[in-house]
Write a structure and sequence with these properties.
heterodimer, A: alpha+beta, Rossmann fold, Dna Ligase, domain 1, D-amino Acid Aminotransferase, Chain A, domain 1, eight-stranded antiparallel sheet, globular, B: 140 residues, mainly beta, OB fold (Dihydrolipoamide Acetyltransferase, E2P), 2 domains, seven-stranded antiparallel sheet, 15 strands
Amino acid sequence: MNKIKKILIANRGEIAVRVAQTCRELGIKTISLYTPEETELPHASIGDESFNLGEGALSETYLNQELIISTAKDLGADAIHPGYGFLSENSIFAKAVVSAGLIFIGPAAASIELMGDKKTSKQEMEKIGAPLIPGYHGDEQDGDFLKAEASKIGYPVLIKASAGGGGKGMRIVRAEAEFEEALASAKREAQNAFGNDIVLIEKFIVNPRHIEVQVFGDSHGNCVHLFERECSIQRRHQKIIEESPSPALTPKIREAITKSAVDIAAGINYLGAGTVEFIYDEDDSFYFLEMNTRLQVEHPVTEMITGQDLVEWQIKVAAGEVLPLKQEDITCRGHAVELRIYAEDPDNEFLPSIGKLNKVGEAKLRNVRLDTGYTDGNDIGVSFDPMLAKLIGWADTREKAITKVRESLNDYPFLGLKTNREYLGRVLGHKTFIKGETFTHFVETYSEDLKKAELTLEDVAKLIGAMHISKNRTVATNEKASDNYNCWHQLSGFRNC
Amino acid sequence: MAKKLIINETEYQYDFRQTAEKVEITIEGKTFNLDKKDLNLSNDGKHFVLNNRDYFIEKASARRSSAASEGSSKSPMPGKILKVLCNEGEAVKKGDPLIIMEAMKMEHTLKASKDGTIKAVKYSEGDLVEGQVELVELED
């Protein structure tokens, strides 16, 4: 790794903190980025050096390619780690980094470009022989034409933004009568999110699971997988619970799906960390969905079952080294579950919540990890993604891993904010989830079961009692509710001096 | 003397007494005697965690203002107005879509909270709005 001595981390939040951690362990210096409104957040000062991006829209800060590359050059970095989101899957950026004489810790620009466009990627996958779902991926975007294609495929169908991701610009259409309105809405959302309203149409699988395979390639022609992750529990098409291994796969199907993923990655000479996503049907068939050409949010579950550090692998292969392990030496042990803790209100359509994070909490059980970009006293606003943290737990069986993360939710109260903690606990305690019958529409199907339980009078009494004896009491007395906040503002001001 | 508190949006009236080790709370005619050592819940003064569930406690007086806004349609959070689907003077039914806004890069459809007539539409397509502001005025 002597080619890489200093890395600029072109990201923020938990993933910037995560990357910096591995760099420290490897003796690599880091440069972290921040904006003036983020000075109190951990990522702002996690690097050996920190650079202030200045104020402005994302295009002037975390998406400002020229500024990020010139900063890396000025401060003597050898490489840029893009994290996930932001510039991580931007082929123009990857190219510009390389032209500037720096190493891009990620795949070749051509791989990003290919997989970034759902349409061209499917055409390439067809050549490689990857399993594909029936659908229309062509250029014709006329409404009537698309409607006819949808009828040919047969309802229900899925409309997806060609340039999309994260559920934006995506609509399920169950009947022909709903098609036009759904198409208009998907196109509008796609245009706003990606500046491009091209959509594709696919067969919608009624009881699908989302199963993805972690792959890794190096520049010496090696390509391996690090098993699968099941990410079926989603709300608003975004993952909230991920686990590995998948409770759905038999050894035979695991072999088939991981082989398919390696064939795809090897087929495009893939370099670095990648994830091949599949839709898995009840009849054990699986279809290629897309390939994410970056480190995934949910990579920690893979790290916990394999005992490997995926950021370290990324840095090594980016430096031109051979993959740390051969396929036969990569083993899977026990079970890991990740919970995404969001600042949102699950009982009110998962709308993001804002406020002052008064207390995160700390791990009290073994083999529990919290990846977060926040610390006590931080303000949580709406400028960035509402994900507060990832809580990951490992145990030797699935049942024990579920119990472990469920218990650990208690140890991280995230005081001061409405979060989905309690909701995650309800999912983990649901008998269907415990049985491993996880489908991507789980939270909609069981929405009634997942509703907040009624408060008993005894609970009410306990809460009132707890409030009256609380050291922090601000509600019962005549103090204004805002006093608590003011005192934090003073504290943070004090720290700045 | 009855005290009032709101726990997770529901108002409760109660009586409260305490000794060095115990608290006595009476709600809806039922009295609970609780040990103070059992009430050491994780909290920041307003947000309490009990049996891994979250509770937000507010003073009853702090709620009055928001009750007055019933019948209005507010933006759930800061964002941008994408489409206005209703006109002033138009009659709408409960559940009719009124406005589509984008926030956190997702679309949210604002629906009529009751049957009525649109008295005023306060924003136009493309406007940026704050959270919790009234977008449409609806009258019976």
